[in-house]
Design a protein that fits this description.
By secondary structure, the protein is an alpha/beta fold. The chain has eleven helices and twelve strands. The chain has helices spanning 8-24, 61-73, 91-104, 120-128, 156-171, 188-201, 218-231, 243-255, 273-280, 295-306, 324-330; strands spanning 49-55, 80-86, 108-111, 133-136, 150-154, 177-182, 207-213, 237-240, 265-270, 286-289, 314-317, 321-322. The two termini are 16 Å apart. The structure holds beta-D-galactofuranose (GZL).
């Protein structure tokens, strides 16, 4: 299934063309290596796009794959000088990183906002400094869309709907009791996946009997699931907002002497390798993909933005879904 609004091959050709165009009208480099310099070529050649990227953290297999895609794509040979920071899932660290990129005078800033709210002030500072900002993966709830040039990411409401539709189609009429492991509180994927799942099960007799954040991590997903198992003796299914929390739930379910995928069904979102292996093994029952390979799209949009070209405000990454048979088939060639 086509993954994004760009076909992969066309994207590569466009990137090469953009790189040649940039070489012809080299951007005056700004020193993004953090030594406080401004102007000059920063010793990295004078036709590289300096880009500052603030990453959420390293909380999940999805995030590791997303970081690898960005770092493997935003390379000098592709025309970039990348400054990368890991915010350890703290908004204040992302704001600090964005301010440092502004001070360095990079050509473009990109980031995946850990939560939706609280970005207007720092985005206004970037705008005042004339530095375009690209959102990847997660959205911000800023009213003023001029604060960012483009947002590249999946449709999280649709992902929640795809998960809920599978549950309703397979279990409506059975009085199914569901517990929900939510992603990071206040994050776009947690808010939207919850919304989509609830809309898809509306009208069925599927009931969410408990819901709590596991912050997208395996450890916290396990801890919350242990609490659910102590509080409820009628859990039929776990809806986890990402594979990692689902994998933590598997550990808790097995420790309780139950069989994941059978005694308690599990539905997750991401489709990273560990989750797909659990699906192939029958411990997870259905996974909705959230493709993390955003590096090529980000590179293409960053080149266009720096070249002053119009870009799409919203680029929706296309996702698919997997049952056990599809997972077994996909695993051998899966990129992440
Ligand atoms: C989704 C991304 C989420 C993943 C989690 O685009 O923001 O964050 O679903 C990750 O695995 O931690």
């Amino acid at each position: 299934m086509a993954r994004t609004t760009f076909a992969r091959g066309a994207l590569a050709a466009l990137s090469a063309a953009a790189l040649l165009a940039l070489g012809a009208c080299s951007t005056t480099p700004t020193n993004a290596s953090g030594d406080g310099g401004s102007g000059g070529d920063g010793g990295s050649g004078d036709d590289l796009i300096t880009i500052g990227f603030s990453q959420v953290g390293a909380e999940s297999g999805w995030r590791a794959a997303n970081t690898k895609s960005i770092q493997d794509t935003l390379t000098e040979e592709n025309g970039f000088e990348l400054s990368f920071s890991d915010a350890q899932q703290k908004q204040e660290n992302q704001i600090q990183a964005i301010r440092s990129y502004i001070a360095q005078g990079v050509d473009v800033i990109a980031f995946s906002p850990v939560v939706e709210s609280g970005w207007d002030a720092v985005l206004e500072e970037a705008k005042a400094a004339g530095i375009p900002v690209i959102l990847t993966d997660r959205a911000v709830d800023s009213e003023d869309e001029s604060l960012y040039a483009s947002f590249i990411g999946s449709d999280f409401v649709l992902e929640g709907e795809m998960a809920g539709e599978w549950v309703a189609e397979n279990f409506d009429g059975e009085g199914l009791k569901v517990v929900e492991l939510q992603g990071t509180t206040g994050s776009a994927p947690a808010i939207d996946r919850k919304e989509g799942f609830e809309s898809a099960i509306a009208g069925s007799d599927v009931e969410i009997i408990d819901s709590q954040t596991g912050n997208f991590t395996r450890a916290e997903g396990k801890t919350v699931m242990e609490g659910f198992l102590q509080a409820h003796d009628d859990i039929d299914l776990v809806f986890a907002h990402n594979d990692d929390m689902g994998l933590g739930a598997i550990e808790a379910i097995e420790a309780a002497g139950l069989t994941p995928g059978e005694d308690i069904k599990i539905v997750t979102i991401d489709a990273v390798k560990d989750g797909m292996q659990a699906l192939a093994d029958g411990k997870i029952n259905y996974i909705v993909e959230c493709n993390p390979l955003l590096g090529p799209d980000l590179a293409e949009i960053a080149k266009k933005v720096v070249a002053g070209e119009e870009v799409e405000k919203r680029i929706v990454v296309k996702d698919e879904a997997f049952d056990q048979e599809a997972a077994i088939e996909a695993l051998p060639t899966r990129e992440y």
